[in-house]
Amino acid sequence: MKISLNWLKKYVDVKVSDEELVRLIGARLVEVEGVIDESHKYDKIYVVRVETAEKIPETHLTLCQIDVGGEELVQVVCGAPNVREGMLAAWIAPGATVPASVHEDAPFVIGKRKMLGKYESNGMLAGADELDFGDDHSGIVEIDPMIAEPGELLADVFGLDDSILEIENKSLTHRPDCFGLIGFAREVHGILGNEGKFSAPELEEEILGEASHDLGLSVEISDSRICERYTAIALAKHGEIKKKYLTFIDTILAKSGMRPVDPIVDATNYLMLLTGQPLHAFDYDKFVAVSGGEAAKVVVRLAKEGEKLELLDGREVELVGNDIVICSGEVPVALAGAMGGKSTEIDEMTRNVILESATFSLYNLRKTQMKHGIFSEAITRFTKGQAPNQTLLVAEACARMLKDGFRVAEVIDNYPQETRVGEVKILVSEINGLLGTEYSKELIVRTLESVNFEVMAEGEILRVSAPAWRTDIRIPEDVIEEVGRLLGYDNIVPTLPLHGTPNQNRMWELKTQVRDIMSSFGANEVLTYSFVSEKLFEKAGLSKKNAYRIVNSISPELQYVRQSIVPSLLDKAYVNQKIPYDQFALFEINKVYQKKWGMNEENVPVEKMRMGFVLAERKGVGAAYYKARKFVDELLRELGISAEYVSITREYDSSTSEYVLGMPFEKKRAAEILVSGERIGVVGEFKNSVRHNFKLAEYLAGFELDFDRVLELGRMKKVGKFGFKEKIDETVTTMESYAETLEKMQAKYPEAEISAVSIYQPEGAEAKNITFHIEKS
After folding, report:
1. What is the pLDDT of residue 661?
2. Given pLDDT bands bounded at 50, 70 and 90, which one contains residue 211?
């Protein structure tokens, strides 16, 4: 996402330098990936008046005399068909760089030259494409004489002396309101500590006037879960709004990475950039014709498998049951939230329009985005979870922008279940206690109100109501985070916590000990995603019925939560064997989830700790089972656990992973690991089908342990009071024997483990240097 600082400053009173502003935004709101300096991009480009325009015979060229604001006219040869006497244009003076080429390897600098061998041309009159305002090359831009005079810098007229912030979108995933300039400016208003509530005139309620009701329009939502709110406004043409002049909107669209198209589409795109609310415009008459009816009936529903739709980009897509479609009656005409359809496209013949302003299920749209490869500005915003509060306000704002050419014929706002804002009750002392601050009640209230929170103070109790667009504010900690963020975490004085000896984290201690043991055996620890693909289940021969499916997965390859560690290790074993490594052992300690374990008291899936291990060799000797079992034996021995191994006699239940913890072992070449008759894991060789699926060598085995049970059964080494050992090296210079020196070191550190690292005695010297490694709790 790109944010123009000049545009931002139209809404926020900024009293700090641009550098400080960027720093504050990065520290308190969102990661700023970069700042594009456009302060000199439009240097030496002026507004000029064409005083004379004479056609050069037998050419398409025009010889122009232009008023550049000085005493003398300047001659320019122009090839544009729309150049004429009296118009205001943009002149790139000799020595200036063409803006569209600024970021190229060899920027194009305009000079003086003779055309046709005899007509001197000083600089050039520029088109929109040369000014980097889109790709229109049909003519030169014309400037409204009401806003500029000859001799003015183009940058001064349109605010082009600018810096563009490049925002990292992922860091704003939870803040859909900030995907519009107004929402972003609101946050900056609060971050800067500006007084009063933030307001934006474009979103103030304003009466549109009585609708004429001469264009029929209705809206039907099949399921409010896929569309919370759908606002539609029918506009009837009553005048011309053909584009004539270069506008501020053109420059904003260009700075934001979009291109101007036509007045209607430009208005919808501009308001999306301004408010974060995507809009779409349908040709009303085409919309009606598709269904063959007499009036426009908008239906929002899920697609039917196999339905097809031609999109605006010319692609025909086959729809799936997850896609949300906008229909004219029963006929799909748009892929909701993603892209409009070709059949209802706005063009130069459009007379009547339907404006759409709606919210759609982010979960459905994320799947649609991946399925059809659509990454438009609109779907980027919808997949963040747009709040439904402003659909009508933004649609009305768009209608006002188009009022010179269209009047309002009908307004429909279908909002089946209005979203209610909850209240959070919190004490001032709770805020300061968690943040470690001493903020006054007045400062906290003022800070929250600056970003449009409603705060009722009753003594030290604050009753906080978040604005409708802040759907992420639900619990007291959310409010505390807002206060800390807006006032700056960097302003919190760091202090060490006051507490006694912390409780030991026995699981952490066990992991540390096991990592050390396994590393000493030559095994390598890896960390893999807890999210896995359906394909991984298929390759491992496991059923996905016992796995949780992620509704809003970040990728089609990460749609399930894993129920076992081993399949992920097999996947990584293939990568390592391909490098190639001829022999290696991989292990991982991590959490797994299975449906059969149910939910915990917080109504979230029960999680269990597992340790997985895979051994792979190209030319292994003997049975791989016994080599993997040797790792288990030695590990459990180090942990003080005595285990026995029994053959697997029961059938493997692939639908529930009930027997072997969800692992693809060959039953006849695997064994249960039992401790006092209780199974804590399984070790064995993998099925041939699994080995072939992962393209691994024949010598392959592994194990998986119930790490929670190992924690209960194991004997861990004693560690220090803070959960770790203090490790130091100490060098002693001595003339005594090693045994005498070691005895003294043991007396000095009675509770420590001491071992010699090195002994060095220079040639001819009587003394020697002995370095000891000391581990003490």
Report:
1. 42
2. confident
Backbone angles phi, psi at 56, to 5 degrees: -85, 120
pLDDT in tens, 101-129: 988 888 999 999 999 888 999 999 999 99
- Classify burial at 200, counting beta carbons within 10 Å of its beta carbon; exposed 0-12, middle 13-18, buried 19 or more: middle
Q: What is the 3-state secondary structure (H, E, C) of 395-464?
A: HHHHHHHCCCCEEEEEEEEECCCCCCCCEEEEEHHHHHHHHCCCCCHHHHHHHHHHCCCEEEEECCEEEE
Closest to 158 (Cα-Cα) out of 240, 22, 271, 41: 41
CB distance 665 to 685 below 8 Å: yes
**C-alpha distances out from residue 725 to 454, 466, 719, 774, Å:** 51, 47, 5, 10
Contact 673, 679 (CB under 8 A): yes
Which residue has tokens 């779409």?
280
The size of the chain, in residues, is 777
Mean of pLDDT over the chain: 90
Tokens of 265: 């589409």
Angle, helices 428-435/476-487, rounded to nearest 10 degrees: 60
What pLDDT is recorded for position 419?
80
Burial class (CB in 10 A: 0-12, 13-18, 19+), 6: middle
Work out the average pLDDT over 711-737: 69
Q: Which helix (H) or strand (E) is 326 found in, with range? A: strand 324-328
Question: Quick check: 655 pLDDT over 50?
Answer: no
pLDDT of residue 752: 85
pLDDT tens for 431-467 read 999 999 999 999 999 999 999 999 999 999 999 999 9
**432 closest CA partner among 421, 416, 443:** 443
Whose tokens are 């990584």? That residue is: 572
Cβ distance 66 to 100 under 8 Å? Answer: no
**Other residues' Cβ atoms within 10 Å of the Cβ of residue 674:** 14
Cα separation values, 639 from 521, 625, 713, 767, Å: 14, 21, 9, 41
Mean pLDDT of 695-700: 92
3-state DSSP assignment of residue 20? helix
Q: Can you tell me whether residue 703 is helix, strand or coil?
A: strand
Q: How far is CA 777 from the centre of its chain?
A: 44
Contact 3, 164 (CB under 8 A): yes
Query: What pLDDT score does 124 carry?
Result: 95
Q: Are 344 and 333 in contact (CB under 8 A)?
A: yes
**How many Cβ atoms sit within 10 Å of the Cβ of residue 468?**
16
Supply the DSSP symbol for 329: T
What's the burial of 13, exposed, middle or buried (CB within 10 Å: 0-12/13-18/19+)?
exposed
